[in-house]
Amino acid sequence: xxxxxxxxxxxxLLCGVNLADTLGYxxxxxxxxxxxxxxxFLMMSRLIQEAxxxxxxxxxxxxxxxxxxxPLWVQVQGFKKTLYPIMQxxxxxxxxxxxSQGGLICRGLLSTLPDHNVxxxxxxxxxxxxQYGVGQKWSICNFWNDPHQRERFxxxxxxxxxLNGERPHREMTEWRKNFLRINxxxxxxxxxxxxxxxWESSQFGFxxxxxxxxxxxxxxxxxxxxxxxxxLHARGDLALYVLSGVKHSYWHSNxxxxxxxxxxxxx
Length: 267
Ligand SMILES: *[C@@H]1O[C@H](CO)[C@@H](O)[C@H](O)[C@H]1NC(C)=O
Ligand SMILES: *[C@@H]1O[C@H](CO)[C@@H](O)[C@H](O)[C@H]1NC(C)=O
Ligand SMILES: *[C@@H]1O[C@H](CO)[C@@H](O)[C@H](O)[C@H]1NC(C)=O
Fold this sequence. Notes:
Elements: H1 2-23, E1 28-31, H2 42-51, E2 57-59, H3 72-89, E3 94-99, H4 101-112, E4 118-124, H5 138-141, H6 150-156, H7 160-163, H8 172-179, E5 184-189, E6 206-207, E7 213-214, H9 220-223, H10 229-234, E8 238-242, H11 255-262
Parallel strand pairs: 1-2, 1-3, 3-4, 4-5, 5-8
Antiparallel strand pairs: 6-7
The structure holds 2-acetamido-2-deoxy-beta-D-glucopyranose (3 copies).
The site of one 2-acetamido-2-deoxy-beta-D-glucopyranose (NAG) has 3 residues, from loops.
């Protein structure tokens, strides 16, 4: 028994890379969230390796922990430098799993990288429509959204309002085209998250002035299709998952979440 396990392990080691090639598992790149780093993604890397042996998983070791407060456009540039070579080496493209704040960094990246080859963009409990209720500081200002201060959001947000096309700018068409190069957008989140506020932001929903949730399809930028979300949806390339019982810092280590919402998009 022991011997056969060892042989399997050895075969996996020897054949891992080729096996991944043969089975067509694309490299997976993981972008962490606020106040965390690669350490928090060991479990997720293991789950990916178990499901798809030989997959080359890179958890990007950049802007970890306190450094994750760096303004998001600066982080986008940094992540770009690290991710781009990985993409270039991946003939059939890569998959991107981005957690929490990382999901916004990934959107910035996908919008501004004209020749990216990201196939699945998995947004794991990420405040895609903004975050309300956390101190307005540092990187967080870049996606802070206050339904009572629309004017201020539109004027001061030089990140999310630009990505959403809520603040019109010259590159909108270009950014939309770049973003639409992805094959699949997978949105995962849920009501017991405890950090993302409102949690519906993980599904592109957000509060109106009266703090009533306006769901994705009624958001102005969706209706106007200003960054391609409506097109992705119409193409059948948007997968939405709402799961209860998962607190914010457990999304990436929860096996049920991985098996049910992530695994199938990593082939
Ligand atoms: C995994 O990907 C990285 C980044 O492209 C590369 O440097 C490394 O050699 C790859 N590892 C294997 C085992 O293929
Ligand atoms: C918000 O509440 C105010 C006051 O109750 C009401 O007049 C207004 O119609 C509401 N707006 C929306 C968008 O529901
Ligand atoms: C894992 O996810 C399942 C399904 O959403 C949930 O019921 C369970 O509570 C989660 N466990 C943890 C530790 O997050």
